[in-house]
Design brief:
Elements lengths: L6 H10 L3 E3 L11 E3 L1 H20 L4 E4 L7 H6 L2 H4 L1 E6 L6 E3 L19 E4 L3 E3 L9 E3 L5 H5 L2 H8 L5 E10 L14 E11 L4 H18 L7 E5 L11 E9 L2 E12 L1 H10 L5 E3 L4 E3 L2 E8 H12 E6 L2 E6 L10 E5 L6 H13 L4 E3 L5 H11 L3 E5 L1 H6 L1 E6 L5 E5 L3 H10 L5 H9 L1
Helix pairs in contact: 2-9
Adenosine-5'-triphosphate binds next to strand 10, strand 13, strand 16 and helix 9.
């Protein structure tokens, strides 16, 4: 597992540095609900953007969608969620704690060893009422996945986007599951955000596309800095497969509590489109002009979680190291994910330094997410930036007033170089674009 990174350390860093706070904390918190603070909201947005860039913007065969959280209740009947989206639940007869029966190793309460009730099936969908009258007819559900919003819009998207198979529809959004057991910080919560792609293909080519998407998705995490040895693929055997799935592989991450699912990739066949066709009376046939035939497309679904990804990126980036006898905590986040890209740090609040430091800040902040910090000692400010994963600090000192140069400090190598202020934007741009982990190339050329 990632060297001695405990969940407690991550939770504490998240609270201390403004990544994640317990929800409604002043009222004692609400179980399994969390709020993203100033750093967390940037990190989360960067995770979404990185996924959208890789899955939608950098591909000609995928378009995006943003559908409503509340949908017609018949959607969830057709999809099988009303009847089937349930987990077996048991209660401890002594301490009253509630457990998921399928996750227990013994049929005794894991907390107090007490006897358990018989399992009862518990539907995970949150119910609410639409409009003023609370009656059965006005029941709506909060969506437990974003996927169904995509399936019911298949026809709308294909006619307006004029896409040909194979093509995909992507969506990012909140989903809600009344999970029986939650926990492990933001790993399993009742309100969470999903990153889902439904990739429609010609039947018969589905296995090929499934085999394409599994490594493609695994690579995405690696490209964004997760160490390959902390990721694994786990193929579901037939007994584990959901009723609609023809195949499924999980991308697992080595979380502090052990290997756990980060993303699932499923071959759903034509189950969803066929179900909605039956229930709505509409046809979901695709006309394949090349083959001159009509068929219901099959779908490959890579489905990931924003919050779980955020957690994995944080854990994998976390390091405590000794620097000259002092402990340094650092997040080696990929620059694309780092909440703040550059911090401008005048050596002190001296009135001669402030105008130059502010003008450097103004030059940078329209191009990069930039922090300006002139409080406390420079050492403490570096440590704060290290803990939130800021790739570069720019320090302005008294010499800067004379030579119009500033110092760039690299978060990972701690190397420092002096560069002319007029070249600062170009240098930072180049480094943040991808050369950031290879400091030598750019810096060596400057030294010549
Ligand atoms: P699990 O087995 O962990 O409950 P699942 O197999 O039910 O997950 P999927 O339905 O495949 O999950 O959902 C796709 C992704 O959505 C998951 O891989 C995960 O990243 C995210 N996700 C699902 N449930 C939750 C949850 N309760 N909290 C946070 N993220 C979740």
């Amino acid at each position: 597992m990632p060297a001695d990174v405990s969940m407690d350390k991550i939770v504490s860093l998240c609270k201390r540095r403004g990544f994640v706070f317990p929800s409604s904390e002043i009222y004692g918190g609400l179980a399994s609900c969390w709020d993203y603070g100033p750093m967390g909201v940037e990190l989360k947005r960067n995770v979404r953007d990185a996924w959208w860039k890789a899955v939608v913007h950098e591909r000609a065969d995928v378009v995006g969608l943003d559908t409503s959280i509340m949908m017609h209740p018949r959607v969830w009947e057709a999809s099988g969620h009303v009847d089937g989206f349930a987990d077996p639940m048991v209660d401890c007869k002594s301490c009253r704690l509630r457990w998921r029966a399928d996750e227990l190793e013994k049929q005794l309460c894991p907390s107090c060893g007490g006897a358990l009730t018989e399992p009862r099936m518990f539907n995970l969908m949150f119910k609410t009422f639409m409009g003023a009258v609370e009656e059965e007819a006005s029941t709506v559900y909060l969506r437990p996945e974003t996927a169904q919003g995509i399936f019911v819009n298949f026809e709308n998207v294909i006619t307006t986007s004029r896409k040909k198979l194979p093509f995909g529809i992507a969506q990012i959004g909140k989903s809600f599951r009344n999970e029986i057991t939650t926990g492990n910080f933001i790993f399993r919560t009742r309100e969470f955000e999903q990153l889902e792609l439904e990739y429609f293909v010609k039947p018969g080519t589905d296995e090929k596309w499934f085999d394409y998407w599994v490594p493609e998705r695994l690579d995405w995490y690696v490209r964004l800095g997760i160490k390959r040895e902390n990721l694994r693929l786990r193929e579901h055997d037939k007994s584990e497969l959901a009723h609609y799935a023809r195949a499924c592989s999980d991308i697992d991450y080595l979380f502090p509590m052990g290997w756990s699912e980060l993303e699932g990739i499923a071959n759903r066949g034509d189950f969803d489109l066929t179900q909605h066709a039956k229930a709505s009376g509409k046809e979901f046939l695709y006309f394949d002009a090349e083959a001159n035939e009509k068929y219901v497309p099959y779908v490959i679904e890579p489905s990931a979680g924003v919050d779980r990804s955020v957690l994995a990126f944080l854990i994998d980036a976390y390091e405590e190291e000794d620097v000259e006898g002092e402990k340094r905590t650092v997040l080696h986040l990929h620059p694309a994910l780092a909440p703040i890209k550059v911090a401008v740090l005048p050596l002190s609040r001296n009135e001669r330094l402030t105008p130059l430091a502010k003008s450097v800040y103004r030059q940078l902040c329209s191009g990069f997410v930039t922090d300006y910090d002139d409080s406390q000692s420079i050492g403490r400010r570096y440590r704060r930036q290290d803990e939130i994963g800021t790739p570069f600090c720019v320090t302005i000192d008294f010499e800067s007033l004379e030579d119009k140069q500033v110092t760039i400090r690299d978060r990972d190598t701690l190397a420092q170089i002096r560069v002319p202020i007029e070249e600062l934007v170009a240098i930072l741009e180049a480094k943040l674009r991808g050369e950031a982990f290879d400091a030598s190339s750019l810096w060596a050329t400057r030294e010549k």
